[in-house]
């Protein structure tokens, strides 16, 4: 199999620490080109991995078979449909857009073009997670669950300067991971029953699942907690099953994503548990949570 020529859009910390080395080192991909809206960042990142720094998005598209995005949701929503219409396979960051309308436009462009589009839901690509979900599926009859993702990421220097994370908060940044995994563990989330966002961006969420289960989640990127707490659990007729995140797993998960990307391209398969339609489903739930939190705030005293 020939290596997929992949262009990277974005030059921030996540692009430099996960996307770029992952694409450069994977046997099925070649990091061919880099473009950001900051030319100096594109030149620096491209030089570190032997790639071509591009001066524009169209120039990047001319060089590659696929595009990996590491940019804010609004920028991804603008650029990803253009890449799909140009026939490029996509690696999409979460959330895939700022709202469901933008996410739908990406999904429609992907469907019309017939390209592969995977979402970087890193936890789902971990073997530990896959084994946990397989066990839950084989056992069945889980009635509830909970998730906690508590971090001080936005208090530190690495992501503290990320405007979109400060703007959209923990729900948009880590919410997709949490919602996706609780959905996969307990069955499709059919609605957000309640949501509350504190002034310090601590989110408390209550979900209903198809089949009658319910689950809760607590999310924050502004708590002085180190190391980050990431815990998932379900419970029911067969007891209690918990899952944590293995430290340093992001690179392994990204490698597994690229394994799947290459296999899908070669096989002609387009459906995947973490494809663009998964991203669209999660976006609908994020929008519901935002709406529910807004309603709750209008009912609060004062």
TrEMBL record:
What are the Gfo/Idh/MocA-like oxidoreductase N-terminal domain coordinates in residue numbering? 4-119
Cleaved signal peptide residues: none
- InterPro entries (alphabetical): Gfo/Idh/MocA-like_OxRdtase_N, Gfo/Idh/MocA_oxidrdct_glycsds, GFO_IDH_MocA-like_dom, NAD(P)-bd_dom_sf
Record keywords: Oxidoreductase
- Where the record annotates domain GFO/IDH/MocA-like oxidoreductase, the positions are 140-239
Q: Could you tell me which SUPFAM superfamilies the record lists for this protein?
A: Glyceraldehyde-3-phosphate dehydrogenase-like, C-terminal domain, NAD(P)-binding Rossmann-fold domains
Highest taxon, organism lineage: Bacteria
Care to name a GO molecular-function term for this sequence? nucleotide binding
Q: Under what name is this protein listed?
A: Putative dehydrogenase
Protein's organism:
Amycolatopsis cihanbeyliensis
Cite the source lineage: Bacteria, Bacillati, Actinomycetota, Actinomycetes, Pseudonocardiales
